[in-house]
Amino acid sequence: MSERVCVGAIAGAFGVKGDVRLKSFCAEPTAIGDYGPLFTEDGKQSFSVKLGQPIPNGFSARLGGVGTREAAEALRGIRLYADRDKLPSLPDDEFYHADLIGLTMMDTGGNVIGKVTAVLNHGAGDILEVQRAGKGSALVPFTLAVVPTVDVAGGRIIADPPEGLLE
């Protein structure tokens, strides 16, 4: 498990005083303001966060140390990470996306399908992108019927994909 989890991203500047458009990836979107300071992926920068008004696809937010529109615009596309110990504990049947990436997916017979490289969500539920050795990637629905077992500690996922999904 990683020490930090991606909780949001900066979508650009908002206004002229250095506020940013902040997109929250949290189950409760306003909670992103509670996990600060937030860090860049490389950990070289950190920001305190003060949420402003809700705006389409996120919030206006004031980040510590960002005082101009130009500085805010320069941060566009930056993903923000929170320390894992500041995030809430999850029930046994829920997972942070960061915990799923890198797990080995196996079928119910114990054969390796591949490694999870991404968790996608286009509105209808989570989908695991699995890189298969020499076969490219496959998209596997992350549902209880298709993925009955997730063993984060053991580094594996057991999947029972529908016939024809991985061909």
List keywords for this structure.
167 residues, single chain, 13 strands, elongated, mainly beta, SH3 type barrels, 2 helices, 6% helix, 2 domains, six-stranded mixed sheet
CATH architecture assignment of the largest domain? Beta Barrel
Overall pLDDT: 90
**Element-by-element helix/strand order:** EEEEEEHEHEEEEEE
Q: What characteristic shape results from the CA principal axes?
A: elongated
Mind describing the biggest β-sheet?
6 strands, mixed
The amount of beta strand, in percent, is 35-45%
Q: Rg from C-alpha positions?
A: 18 Å
Give the name of the CATH superfamily of the largest domain.
Answer: RimM
The low-pLDDT segments are none
Structural class designation: mainly beta
What is the tally of helical segments?
Answer: 2
Give a verbal description of the structure.
By secondary structure, the chain is mainly β. The protein has two domains: 4-86, Elongation Factor Tu (Ef-tu), domain 3; 97-159, PRC-barrel domain (SH3 type barrels, Roll). It has two helices and 13 strands; from the N terminus they run E-E-E-E-E-E-H-E-H-E-E-E-E-E-E. The protein has a six-stranded mixed β-sheet, with no helix packed on it. Strands 5-6-2-1-7 form a five-stranded antiparallel β-sheet. The longest helix is centred in the middle third of the chain and has 6 residues, at 69-74. It starts with a strand and ends in an 8-residue tail after the last strand. The relative contact order is 0.16. The model has no long low-confidence stretch (mean pLDDT 90).
